[in-house]
Structures are given as structure tokens and as C-alpha cells.
Design goal:
By secondary structure, the chain is an alpha+beta fold. Among the domains are: 73-147, OB fold (Dihydrolipoamide Acetyltransferase, E2P); 255-460, Chloramphenicol acetyltransferase-like domain (Chloramphenicol Acetyltransferase, 2-Layer Sandwich), CATH 3.30.559. 26% of the residues lie in helices and 24% in strands. It is built from 12 helices and 22 strands. It has helices at residues 7-14, 52-55, 154-161, 171-174, 218-225, 237-252, 265-282, 289-300, 350-365, 371-374, 439-454, 457-461; strands spanning 22-25, 29-34, 63-68, 72-76, 86-92, 99-100, 105-110, 115-119, 124-129, 136-138, 142-148, 255-263, 309-311, 318-320, 327-329, 331-332, 337-338, 341-342, 379-383, 402-406, 410-416, 419-433. Strands 12, 15, 18, 19, 20, 21 and 22 form a 7-stranded mixed sheet that branches. The protein has a 4-stranded antiparallel sheet with strand order 4-11-9-6, with no helix packed on it. Strands 8-7-5-10 form a 4-stranded antiparallel sheet, with no helix packed on it. Strand 21 (410-416) and strand 22 form a beta hairpin. Helix 8 (289-300) packs across helix 11 (439-454). The longest helix is centred in the middle third of the chain and has 18 residues, at 265-282. 21% of the residues are buried. Residues 18-41, 43-47, 50-66, 155-160, 170-176 and 178-201 have low confidence and may be disordered.
């Protein structure tokens, strides 16, 4: 019967049983099978022979395990904004070998205005960092190579968490051992005796003299002056951008500042009467910024040029007037000054403006401002009074035309109806671009703001 089979099958039947593992590799996985036997070949079930078990119908159950391999995913620098094409890689939140979840932060890119987070497009293991920290990166550049779908190694993590304790030293090792004599040291050495001079005319040795070239009081001088150290830190992108913009403003605009003084008594009383009700109904703390924003919006109706700007080549040849008011509110952060924008302030009441300012301030302190939060702006209010500033001249935020500076409230003696009274007073400073705004218009605008603040009821009517 065996002779009827073709020669290849005869050789196959004569092959010994294969006990070793057989690995079948594919693009996506490697399956390892142990104790494999071939499947039955139809038409050969009745073929007798000593190797029938090899070709028989009974197949030993397969015990297998699967080891997955995964394709790599390259994470690129995301699109940040229309006006931002590059940034500085501030730091990597994850390192090589660490596992990241989908949408988890991998790196932070510092731009001129905000910090941009780079998140993982899918879960996996960081395989390679393609750039270094503090490198300049551009939109679309490769940042990280991610092994998509990989899982953290639990065994290695557990091993790292539980380091082996050092073995306790044995009693014999604790006993001090006496030094064993060697061929080079036959016994305990004797202290060398001083050598005596045998020459009758030899002189006794002279004591060592101190080096006279070293200044005697150098150490005392350093101690008296104290530490005189210096350190140099590279400016971040936001600080560089702030410096560039402020210098550009000084070189472009014909800046001039006008001042006035406002009595805060009525506004403080107004706030005291309604702040608890507003907080209870809306959850918003009523402050002074909303009142000054509303006062500026109403004053712009009389002086619209304050909300305008100059555009065009060679310093500008066109005036753009706007029927909306986007107020930039200066907020100080650890990285620098940012100016998020309250959109369409002319349509808001005091509570609406206050809520918008509070939300933007929180986002700025939490470093969560977006490009959209700071884009645009037609007028800026800067409150240096919260830091104790008594007087200052703010710089225009181009291409805007004016900026209002608020300062600290101080009790001062003031003449009221022929009497001297102590009133809470604040200095106001309006810096404006004299190319567009004349002094008369600037003063009128600031006086209007003063009148609204000193009589807050007029803002409710306006």
C-alpha cells in the first residue's frame, strides 16, 4: 500500500515526529504552537504503516500563546493657529518606554502667545523621541514615534516598585579579621626614627615658610563681600514676543498719556449694596473691572475714534471704525502679561462682563488660554492697582488706538461742596495714539468715564 503513494508522500510518511515548536509569522502577529501534528489528509486515512499516527485523523489539542507586534505611529506638531508656524519644545510629559492613553499629553510647545499641548492620537508606548527639549519645531514636524496599541510592562513595573532587600550580613562577616601577613609585609612596621646628621658641620632643618605671593586678606575680603553669583536664563518665546510688541508700539504709535482722578465712593457703595445678591443669583463676584468696561463702552459712543485703528502700508493710511467693542483685559501670569478678549462687550450688562472677565482670568492662571481667546481686541484695560500701583503710563497694544490704566484706591482729603472730606480716590491714565486721536477727544473720553464711575446709576440707564 505504501508503494502506491507518490514519492513525496512516501518521504513525508517516513519523516520523524516533530516535537519542536513551529512559529508562523505574519504581519500582525506571531503564533507559537507546541506539540503540533498535521491535519488529516483525505484519502490517506486507510493507509497503513508505522507512521499512521503522524497522518491520522486524531489531532492533539493545540496549546498556543500569541505575541503581538504593532505598527509605529509618528506624532507630529499640530496646527496651532494661522499666525503661528513654529514654537519651542518646552518639555516632554512622557519618556521612552512609558505608556500613554489616547488624548493624553505627550509634550508641550511654547509659542509667542500660549503653550500648546501635543496629545497622543491613540494609546501606546513611547518608542522614540525625535527632537530634544528647547528645540525649535514647526507645524507638521515629527515629534514622537509611538508604538500604537502597546501595553505597559506590568512585570517590570512591579519589579521596580519592589526592590530586593539586601541580605543580612552573617555573624562571621561582622567579626573583624586580623590582617594576614604577606610576603611583602612580613610583620608590623615600626615607626621610622628621625635621621640624625653625621656631619659635624650640618645645620638643623629650618621650618617651612609661608608663600608670600598669596594675599593674606583675600579670604577675609570674600567673606566680607558675601556671595557674588550671577545666572543667565534664556528668555522664553512669550517674553521675547512681549518685548518685540512693546518696542514696536513705541516705534510706531505717537503715544501720549492724559490723566484724571476719580472718586470711587459711589461705585464702592453700589458694589456693597448689590454684590451679595449678584453672588447668590449668578455665582459671580461683582468687581470694579466690569464697571470700568461698561463706562468705556458708553463713552465710546461719544468718542468712537477710541475704538478705531489705523491700517494700511507705510504706517497706515486707512482708519477702521467698528460698531462692536472687544475689550482686551490685561492679566499677569507667571510667564508674562496676556490680554484675553471679552467679545461684544457692548451687548453685555455688568454681570455678563464680570463673568467673562472671571472666566478668562481663571483660564489665564491655569495656562489654558487658546489663541482664539486672545485674538483681536479693539481697546485694552490694564489694572495695575491690584498690585499697588499709584500711577503709571500704559503702552498701547497695537493696532489698537488707546489703553486705559487703573490704579490703586487711596484715601485722600478732597474738597467737596466747600468742605474737606476723606474720599477713596483713584488715578486714571489713558494712553492714546495721537496719529488718530487728538488731545481734546482723549480728554473728553476720560472725563466721560469718570462721570459714569462717580454716578453708576447712569450706566444702568445707558
Amino acid at each position: 500500500m505504501a508503494s502506491r503513494l507518490p514519492l513525496p508522500l512516501q518521504r513525508l510518511r517516513s519523516m520523524p515526529r516533530v516535537p519542536a515548536s513551529i512559529c508562523c509569522r505574519t504581519f500582525t502577529s506571531v503564533r507559537c504552537f507546541e506539540g503540533v501534528r498535521t491535519r488529516p489528509i483525505h484519502g490517506l486515512k486507510s493507509a497503513p504503516g508505522p507512521r499512521d499516527a503522524f497522518l491520522g485523523a486524531n489531532v492533539i489539542p493545540i496549546g498556543s500563546h500569541q505575541i503581538r507586534t504593532y505598527a509605529d505611529t509618528v506624532v507630529k506638531v499640530p496646527q496651532m493657529a494661522e499666525s503661528i508656524t513654529e514654537g519651542t519644545l518646552k518639555q516632554f510629559s512622557k519618556q521612552v518606554g512609558e505608556y500613554v492613553e489616547r488624548d493624553e499629553e505627550i509634550a508641550t510647545i511654547e509659542t509667542d502667545k500660549i503653550d500648546v499641548s501635543v496629545n497622543a492620537p491613540e494609546s501606546g508606548v513611547i518608542k522614540e523621541l525625535l527632537v530634544s527639549e528647547e528645540d525649535t519645531v514647526t507645524v507638521g514636524q515629527d515629534l514622537v514615534k509611538l508604538e500604537a496599541g502597546g501595553a505597559p510592562e506590568k512585570n517590570s513595573e512591579q519589579a521596580a516598585e519592589k526592590p530586593k532587600e539586601p541580605a543580612a550580613p552573617s555573624l562571621e562577616s561582622e567579626k573583624p579579621r586580623a590582617p594576614q601577613p604577606t610576603s611583602s609585609s612580613p610583620g608590623p612596621e615600626k615607626a621610622p626614627s628621625p635621621t640624625k646628621s653625621t656631619s659635624p658641620g650640618a645645620e638643623p632643618p629650618k621650618p617651612a615658610q609661608q608663600d608670600s605671593s598669596k594675599p593674606q586678606g583675600s579670604e577675609d575680603t570674600k567673606t566680607a563681600l558675601g556671595a557674588r553669583e550671577e545666572r543667565r536664563v534664556k528668555m522664553n518665546r512669550m517674553r521675547l514676543r512681549i518685548a518685540e510688541r512693546l518696542k514696536q508700539s513705541q516705534n510706531t504709535a505717537a503715544s501720549l498719556t492724559t490723566f484724571n482722578e476719580v472718586d470711587m465712593s459711589s461705585l464702592m457703595e453700589f458694589r456693597k449694596l448689590y454684590k451679595d445678591d449678584v453672588l447668590k443669583k449668578t455665582g459671580v463676584k461683582l468687581g470694579f473691572m466690569s464697571a470700568f468696561s461698561r463706562a468705556c463702552v458708553l463713552a465710546m459712543k461719544d468718542v468712537p475714534a477710541v475704538n478705531a485703528s489705523i491700517e494700511g502700508p507705510n504706517g497706515g493710511d486707512t482708519i477702521v471704525y467698528r460698531d462692536y467693542v472687544d475689550i482686551s483685559v490685561a492679566v499677569a501670569t507667571e510667564k508674562g502679561l496676556v490680554t484675553p478678549v471679552v467679545r461684544n462687550a457692548e451687548t453685555m450688562d455688568l454681570v455678563g462682563v464680570e463673568k467673562s472677565i472671571a472666566d478668562l482670568g481663571k483660564k489665564a492662571r491655569d495656562n489654558k488660554l487658546t489663541i482664539e481667546d486672545m485674538a483681536g481686541g479693539t481697546f485694552t484695560i490694564s489694572n495695575g492697582g491690584v498690585f499697588g500701583s499709584l500711577m503709571g503710563t500704559p503702552i498701547i497694544n497695537l493696532p489698537q488706538t488707546a489703553v486705559l490704566g487703573l490704579h490703586a484706591i487711596k484715601d485722600k482729603p478732597v474738597a467737596v461742596n466747600g468742605k474737606v472730606e476723606i474720599r477713596p480716590m483713584m488715578y486714571l491714565a489713558l494712553t492714546y495714539d495721537h496719529r488718530l486721536l487728538d488731545g481734546r477727544e482723549a480728554v473728553i473720553f476720560l472725563v466721560k468715564v469718570k462721570e459714569y464711575i462717580e454716578d453708576p446709576r447712569r450706566m444702568l440707564l445707558g
